[in-house]
Every structure is written in structure tokens, then in C-alpha cells.
Amino acid sequence: MIRACSPLLRTLLIGLAVLLAAACGPLDAASAGAEETAVPDPAAALVPAPVSLRAGDGRFALSAATPVHAEGADAAAAARHFAAYAARSHGLALEVGSGQGRAGGIRFDIDAGADFGGPEAYAIEVAPETVRVSAADPRGLFYGAVTLWQLLQGDADRTGGVALPAVRIQDAPRFGWRGFMLDSARHFQSVEEIKQLLDAMARHKLNVFHWHLTDDQGWRIEIRRYPRLAEVGGCRIPAGDGGVDPGTGAPVPYCGYYTQAQIRDIVAYAAERHITVVPEIDVPGHAQAAVAAYPELGVTGEQVEVLNEWGVNQTLFNVEESTFEFLENVLAEVVELFPGTYIHVGGDEAVKDQWQASERVQARMRELGLADEAALQSHFIKRMERFLVARGRRLIGWDEILEGGLPPEATVMSWRGIEGGIEAARQGHDVVMTPSSELYLDYLQTDSPNEPPGRPAMVTLEQVYRFEPVPPGLEAERRMHVLGVQANLWTEHARTFERVQHHVFPRLAALAETAWTPADRREYDGFLRRLPAQMQRYRAMGIEPATTPFEVLADATRNRGSVTVALRNPLGYPVRYTLDGSEPGPGSAIYRAPLDLALPATVRAAAFHGGVALAPAATHVFDDASLLVRTDEQLGTCPDTGRLLLRLEDDGPLHGERAIFNVTIFYPCWLWPEADLEGIAALEVRAGRIPYYFQLAHDEPNRKFLPASTAHGELVVQSGGCQGPRVATLPLPAKPDADGFITLRAPLTPTADRTDLCLTFTGDTRPTMWVLDRVRLLPGRPRP
Ligand code: ACM
Q1: Is 349 noted as a catalytic residue in this protein?
Q2: How far apart are the C-alpha atoms of 645 and 665, rounded to whole Å?
Q3: Residue 216 covered by a domain
Q4: Contact, 82 vs 126, CB < 8 A?
Q5: What distance in Å separates the CA atoms of residue 784 and residue 777, rounded to the nearest whole number?
Q6: What is the arithmetic mean of pLDDT over 192-200?
Q7: Is 45 a member of any domain?
Q8: 725: nearest Cα among 750, 700, 706, 743
């Protein structure tokens, strides 16, 4: 029996077929609309792209009656994954059997004696009567199952049903380490959410889940011998209103940890999908949650709280023998829980101030004959390595473990660029490339105002895709040390699983292709043509990817009585638009050049591929009033504001949506470049206030404050840039209004009609900070 699709699923799948058909055409509008009748190209379906694919003639039709044969437990496991995916995405209820005595159908075979090109390699042959997926190893067969599932076309409900196009595929991964790191310390994900991510990783053919389980803000792994680690270290009181019950004023802790039973369950779940879990226990820094639980582990012995601030914090483990024994006892339980080869011990961002200030640590350093604190950290990490190596494991750490000397067998995860990886490889160590500038998924993916909180210094889909893990400058004989590549999601700003998914998808698809596909088969435009099919698949599998890369953004320039509107899709998909308020469709005007429109104007626009809108149409309304407003997202950053632009959310309400602000935390200043002040008499500003919850460590002196000249500081407006004359000064109240915002107005006495307006909050307002939400120019002077 063919199970009927839900109307939503059917719509998605019809869309998928159209997109697959469109995926071989150029990435422009010329292909739109004419594809409904085209035969879908099998290559169009696959992310990551395989090593080799040859399309054949005809198709293999599937129904619930299609036999799926698999001999032995390993082959059956791969077949069952295929059947489960097909059931979810295509409503096909396939039964997996041994296939004894039944001809035809789909066969999953492990042929241990055959040479497929490695244990993760596989082959697929689809012919009109039979389908065979084969590999030498269960891993390869699993990846074959994923590819076969991606090849499914059509819809169980429609004429023609579900089919596989005739094709031959041979495939094997480029890298053995295809990783994704999730920070479960800053924000915590449920076991079910972790499993959803593992499932998605597996469907991207990724095979290492690096699980960041401990940090200053939370210890999230149960250690039986030291229960306070999870019970005390697993709870923090969030900063500001987010940590207070508005009804009672009582603290509202943010708590969570994974029990050992849950961890075993997750590790087993990952293993079924051929994913190794690499746990991270971060030492000697990022230690505050552990020290909060057991103050004797700290350098000062003082009781500290689990940290509720972000950034780089000073708390380190001390270097007493008892602390090493403690950490070894922790690692002993970690090793029991995680059967994989690698254990990650962090090593990052351990500022050494506490060690430098401690007589006891300094005395210990001298006893050990160590020259400096870098050598002491190296000693610390080597001690961890000795313990792990004795248990048959390997240590991996962030690239700071190079400082002071690497432990003999350590593997290095290069995050501060690729230089640490190059250096480690030259020293003969294995490396995993995960540079923050290209592969950190908490960096936002577009400049859309609809992005969630994160780091607006962008890591675009294209950057992830184009990252080359093997540096061309690395000597040929050292290149084998590059084990692979990994994307990392830090979760300071990812409070919900919805946000986690937004950051991860679809950039994980780009990572997958970087990690899997041979360098000479990678091609960004081809990837973009396949991406819409991947997006449909995400949705069919219950994943909510980011839609911001598929939106249409509008940049408007105000003219007299008219507006010039430039439209763009962040990924460069063709844009279609309407000016009459109607929904843009595949027949709507294609955007080619900026539009000059009389005011008022309404532009509705969507990006299209294969005649299908890639996201709901954006509606942009332009009138005299809207053109005189800039939100914080539309404002620029000021010169000399430090490196750190953040997109931060308000601390309240406790539940539900919170306001989001773009702010440079070193210097709260915003720039409206080329503001058109002709006819403008005044300015209105809406501002909010959020907790200042950052530890900047050695960057602290780079924070700048303009001195305040009134009790609570003021918002200073300068024209001609941030060195120009003050054109308005708006004194600030002691606190915002009940809704968390203030609205201030001041007359404006500009010196020029078109000028850079610089808006700065004065004073050191910590532990809170004012943040700009919106600036509105108010006309009053008649235009000449
Ligand atoms: C890191 O981003 N601190 C490894």
C-alpha cells in the first residue's frame, strides 16, 4: 500500500521534483518556469556531491511492495535507515527482509572482499529492474543508503509515484574527520534535540560529533565521583531580568546536565549512524563551573558562582597534585562513557593572570623547573595526555596547546586561523581545521535584519563552502596530517533549538561537501543549484533551516519624492518582484537593476529557483516616513569601536521573544553614513538597555567610554563622523520605561545636508548598557 502524503509534504515533494529538474540549469531566471516536464537529473539531488556519477536510462519505480533485501545485521541496519528516511520524506512504507527467494527490488550488500576505495566508500547501481547498494564495510553501506535516499524522486500520491533515476555512483570521502561541534555548556539541548542533530549529521555524511560539555557557564556531564560538578556546576543564574522571576523576584536558575545513562544512549545512537562522539572537558581555563562546584580546584580557593557572563574569563584550575588526580578521575569516567579514540581537553583561552598572581602556582612552576606559564600549561596538558595514552586514547586540543610545547601524540584543532594547524602538521602532529573566520556557525550567515542573535561578522554559506582544509602552503609530505575539517557552533546566543538549527542549516551542507567531496569536484554554483533540493529535504525531515539566505533584502536611497530600491538575495538567486502588492510568482518581473519608484511604493519580492520561491516573499514599504528611519541593523559601526560587533538580545521577558540589538560592546557607537538631513529639524531615538555581561580579560583596557556630563550619561550625536561637532545631546534617564525602552527627541542643528551621523552613549554604564534600537529623522525645516 502506498501511504498518502500529507498535503504539506506533497507540496514539498512536488517542489523537490521541480527543483531537481532545475538543478542542472544555470543559476539564473532563464531556467525558471519551463522545468515541470524535464526529467530530473540524479546529480541534482546529491549533497555532498559524489566522486563519480553516471546517469543511465529509465527509472526504478518504488512502492510499498518493493522488496528491500539485506543479508546480515550490518546490511539490514543500512537498509532500515534508508527505509526510515524514505518513510518520513516520501511516505513510503518499505519492508526490509532477507530477500531470500525474491527477485528484483533493492539490495544492500556488504562485500568485505571487494575494493571500493576504503571503509566509508560505496557503490550504487540503479537500473529499471534492480537497485544495488554495496560497500566493503557497514560505514560505506550506510553512506550508500543516505545517497540512495537523496536520489528518491516524486511523490507517492502522484502519477508515476516515487522512483529512483537509473544511475551508477562510486563514492568515498575526501577526509576521515568530518566534524561538527556543539556547545551544550552555554545553552543546553535536550537528548531528543541532540539526536535530531546526530541524525542530520549522518544524512550529511559527517562522522565526528565534538561535544563541548564543560565551560565557565555550565558543567553538563554527570561525573559519579564528583556529583557537585553537574548538580552545582550545571546551574547558573542568568544575568539581568532573565535570571529573576518577575512575580516573586526569586532567582530563576538555568540548569541542565546529561546523566551517564543519557550519554550512553546518545553515544550508542551516534554509533548506529557511524558517528564518533568526541567529548570535550576544557582545561585549564573555561573552568569556572567546576571551580564553583569544588572551590579547592581553583587558584584562589574562593567560592565563585557559575559564570553568567560571556567572553574570556580568568578562572583557571590550580596545579596541585590533588587537582590533577581530580581531573584524571573525571577523565576515567569520561573514557568509560566515550569509546572513541579522541578525548578533547580544550586548552583554549586560558589567560594566565591567576597563575601569575599566585605564589603557590609560581612556587610549583619553579619546583617543576618550568620557565613560564605557557610551559606550565604545556605541563598540564601533557599530564592529561599521559593519562589518556595509558588508556589507549589520544588527546586533542585547541591550537593553544601548541604554546609551551605540544604533548608528543597530541592532535591540534586549529581555530585561530589555519596557522596553528600548519605549525602542528610541520611538527608531525595531526590536525583538524576549524578556523573561526570560515567555520564558526555562531557567526551570522547574512546581514538580514531577521538573523537571530550571534556575531554579525559573517561566515557566509559561500565561505564555508570555499574553505580549503589543506593549506596550499603546507608541504606535500605534511598534508596527510590534515585529518579533516569541522564546523563549530558556540551557543552563547543560541538560547533555543530553533536558533541552533538556524545557525547550523544549511551551512552544514556546505561543510559536508567541503569534507566529503574531492577538491576538483567542488563547485559553488553547482552547490547552489542543488541547495534548494536540500532545503526541501530538511523540511521533509523536520528540520528548520535558516531562511535568511533565501530572503530578498532591499537597500533604499531617498530622493525627492521618489526612492531608489536595490534588491538582492544573499546567495545570488534570481529575484522576482511586484509593485502592485501582489505575491510575486514565477511569471513576475525579474529584478535586473535598481528601481526608481515614486512614493509611496510597495515592493514585494522573492528569490526563485526552478520556478519555485525559495522563501516567503518579503514586503518592503517605502514612504516619506519609513525612509527617515534606520534600525540598529541598518546603521553602521563607528571607526575605532574595537573588533567586536555583537547581535545581542534583551534579558527579558523570561519566556518568549526578546528584542535584539546590534552593538559594539567595546564602544557603544552607531553610524548613519550619508544621512540626508535636508529639511530635517529634529531626531528621535529609541533605545533599550541590556545587561553588560562580558568578560574581556586582556581586551578590557580597549573598552572606551566618552565621559558623561550628566548624572546618567547621554546620547551624543555628531555630524561629519565621530570626530565632528556635536549636533545634539540627549540626556539619559536613570532607567528605561516599563517596556524596557526609552524614546528621546532633540532638535538637530546639522552643519551639512548630507553627512555621517555618529551616535554614542557616554559613561561607563556597567552592569547594564544602553543600546540603540532605532533612529528617526523628523522633518520640520521646509525643503528649499
Ligand atoms: C574557541 O573558540 N575558544 C576554541
Answers
A1: yes
A2: 7
A3: yes
A4: no
A5: 17
A6: 98
A7: no
A8: 750
- Whole-number Å distance between alpha carbons of 782 and 372: 69
- Is residue 203 within 8 Å of residue 540, measured between CB atoms? no
349, 423, 447, 544: which one is catalytic?
349
Q: Which of 113, 136, 171 is the last residue in one of the domains?
A: 171
Pocket test for ligand 1, best of 281, 436, 437, 695 (most atoms within 8 A of CB): 436
**CA end-to-end distance (rounded Å), the chain:** 76
What's the CA gap between 267 and 261, in Å, rounded? Answer: 10
All 3 cell numbers of residue 50? 559524489
Residue of 314, 443, 430 whose CA lies nearest to 373: 314
Nearest atom, ligand 1, residue 440 CA: 2
Here the CATH number for the domain that contains residue 381 is 3.20.20.80
**Which residues is 646 bridged to in the sheet?**
663
Q: State percent of the chain over pLDDT 70.
A: 93
Q: How far is the CA of 383 from the centre of ligand 1 (A)?
A: 21
Which segments of 301-391 does DSSP mark as H helices, in order?
Answer: 321-337, 353-357, 359-367, 373-390
Select from 600, 623, 646 the last residue of a domain.
623
| Beta carbons of 674 and 756 less than 8 angstroms apart | yes
DSSP of 695-742: E-GGGGGG---PPP-STT-EEEEESSSTTS-EEEEEEPPSS--TTSEE
Q: Provide the phi-psi class of 286: left if phi over 0, else alpha when psi is between -120 and 50, else beta.
A: left
286 as an active site residue: the answer is: yes
Q: The domain spanning residue 144 has which CATH number?
A: 3.30.379.10
The cell numbers describing 238, all together, are 542568568
Choice from 278, 401, 402, 415 to test ligand 1 binding pocket (greatest atom count within 8 A of CB): 415
Does residue 194 sit in the same domain as residue 256?
yes
Domain at 563, CATH number: 2.60.40
Contacts of 121 (CB under 8 A, 6+ apart): 135, 136, 140, 170, 171, 172, 173
Please give the tally of structural domains in the chain.
Answer: 4
Give yes or no for a contact between 402 and 413, defined as CB atoms under 8 angstroms apart. no
**How many whole angstroms from 400 Cα to the centroid of ligand 1?**
10
Alpha carbon of 69 to those of 104, 127, 170, 620, 759: distances in Å?
A: 9, 16, 20, 54, 68
Question: Cα separation of 231 and 143, whole Å?
Answer: 39
Q: Tell me how far apart the alpha carbons of residues 282 and 369 are, in angstroms, rounded to a whole number.
A: 25
Determine the pLDDT at residue 753.
84
Residue 13: the pLDDT is: 46
Give the structural domain span for 71. Answer: 52-171
The pair phi, psi for residue 67, each rounded to 5°, is: -75, 140
* pLDDT higher than 80, residue 699: yes
| Residues 676 and 601 grouped into a single domain | no
Q: Are residues 300 and 416 in the same domain?
A: yes
Rounded to whole angstroms, the Cα distance separating 67 from 104 reads 7
Which alpha helices (H) appear in 496-618, and where do they start and end? 497-504, 507-516, 524-540
Q: Give me the torsion for CA of 219, 224, 226, 229, rounded to 10°.
A: 10
155 is catalytic: no
In this structure, what are the phi and psi dihedrals at residue 421, rounded to the nearest 5 degrees?
A: -65, -40
- Report how far residue 719's alpha carbon sits from residue 494's, in angstroms, rounded to the nearest whole number: 36
Q: Spell out a b/e string for 514-553, using b for 16 or more CB atoms within 10 Å of the CB, else e.
A: bbbbeeebbebebbbbbbbbbbbbbbbeebebbbbbbbbb
Q: Over the stretch 705-744, which tens digit does the pLDDT of each residue have?
A: 889 999 999 999 999 999 999 999 999 999 999 889 999 9
C-alpha cell at 290: 567546576
pTM score of the predicted model: 0.95
Distance separating alpha carbons of residues 499 and 437, to the nearest angstrom: 20
Tell me the pLDDT of the chain averaged across its residues: 92
Q: What is the 3-state secondary structure (H, E, C) of 478-529?
A: HHHHEEEEEEEECCCCCCCHHHHHHHHCCHHHHHHHHHHCCHHHCCHHHHHH
Q: Which residues contact 538 (CB under 8 A, 6 or more apart)?
A: 200, 505, 506, 544, 545
Count Cβ atoms within 10 A of the Cβ of residue 281 and give its class: 0-12 exposed, 13-18 middle, 19 or more buried: buried
